[in-house]
Amino acid sequence: WPHFPLSGLPLTNLMPSIENIGGINYTDVYVVDATGFTDARNYISILWVSKTKGVLQMQDTAGNTWVRDI
Fold it and tell me: Are the CB atoms for 6 and 13 separated by under 8 Å?
């Protein structure tokens, strides 16, 4: 599971949404463009971040999606 420098993630301009990820409903999810947080090894393009749980899901540039086990 790649690590991202989320302390600099600008969530203030984004609105949280309700998302069902891995069969669980989350009410505080931000869908974030992750291209600035990854390097050439990962190629992650989208992050789904919960304010309470952290990174929940990610998608790479090829469209593959990974869900975090919580």
Answer: no
